User: What shape does this take?
Amino acid sequence: MNWLAAGLVALVLGTSHYLDWPSEIEAAQDAVAAYKAAKTDQQRQQRFEAAVQQMCGENAGWRLLDNGSVQCFTHRGYKTKKVQL
Assistant: This one.
């Protein structure tokens, strides 16, 4: 009887690593999805910045305001135009 109980415990402990298998794959898939989302957000931010820079001028500075508009500046810091997005 003791050998049977010991064999059953060994069997349960020996197969317990299979319980973590799906969660590890899901965690890896979630990590890949988060990486792709971050990469997409970064590319979107770069396209936005390039479009605003082109709108304000090649050598102009700009700042995103709280209300969603963009304020363009000259090299010397003078405000030139304000565009509502």
Observations:
- Helices lie at 2-15, 21-56.
- Strands lie at 61-64, 69-73, 79-84.
- Residues 31 and 37 are 10 Å apart (CA to CA).
- Residues 28-85 form one domain.
